[in-house]
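Sample entry follows:

:::
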Amino acid sequence: MKAIIPVAGAGTKLRPHTYTQPKALIPIAGKTILSFIVDQLHEAGIREFIFIVGHMGDKIRDYVQQTYPDLTSHFIFQNERQGTGHAIELTGNIVGGDEVFVVLGDTICDFDIREVLDSPFNMLGIKKVDDPRNFGVALVGDDEFIEQVVEKPSIPKSNMALVGLYKIRETSILFECLRQLFSGSPGTDGVYHLTDAIDCMIQRGARFKAFKVKNWFDCGKKETLLESNAILLKKSGGNIKSEHQFPNTIIIPPVSIAPGCDIANSIIGPHVAIGANARVHHSIVRDSIIGSFTHLHEVVLDHSLIGSDASVKGLSRTLNIGDNTDIDFG
């Protein structure tokens, strides 16, 4: 079993943060989005990973090699973003005939991964949504096998959305369908979707079974990223290193505070994640993500996303500030 993680997307909805770092390396609940994905797969026994990278792909490569030196990691550059189908097709030579588990690079889900990996069938993760028109949609039969998948249908036949988790055993059929896909015109949005290749596999007789995820954490934009940060902190209980000493400070859990932070005369929490070596003085911070090496002084922040190496002084606002920013409201 090999894991394939496409992380070449530009992450435009998370700008300005994705101007300076890939979306997969955005922090959430004390980790990066990518670490949540890799850790889950690694703990289930997968040791070989294929990362499909694009703009700032060197940052992904450096992060993986530094954080996971024991993994067998491959990095493929998708120079032209032509969709998930095109991304997966680039991995053909490395995959060979092995089974693959594909996880889209912004997909953090709570599910029984061991049950999925042990199943003798191809598997697709699904979850019921209110408006499925912006997702790949699965039509599921009474026997839990999938009869059809469609990418962003204008008139959906189902409200079961594909969450971005795909276990594919018959990879030879997958790559045949991808080649067939490229012989025609691009699909929805003018790109080649993995969804269309999977539907081709189903029409050729491959059997896909649906599995429902317990939680699907949306990391696509600021508001939902902060919501997911709060839920994941509640789930983990937060993380504060025992050596931390925060004078005249109240911590309201769950909170995650990375090593090297200097926090004093402040109220932190609930639902706050603070990156390494941040400095927070005379401030109140709740429901926020604060990047590494960031300096907050005399501020009140709520539902804010602050990048790394930023400096904010003297205000009470809701902010969305990218890396390397210096703001003084004094």
Observations:
- The radius of gyration is 21 Å.
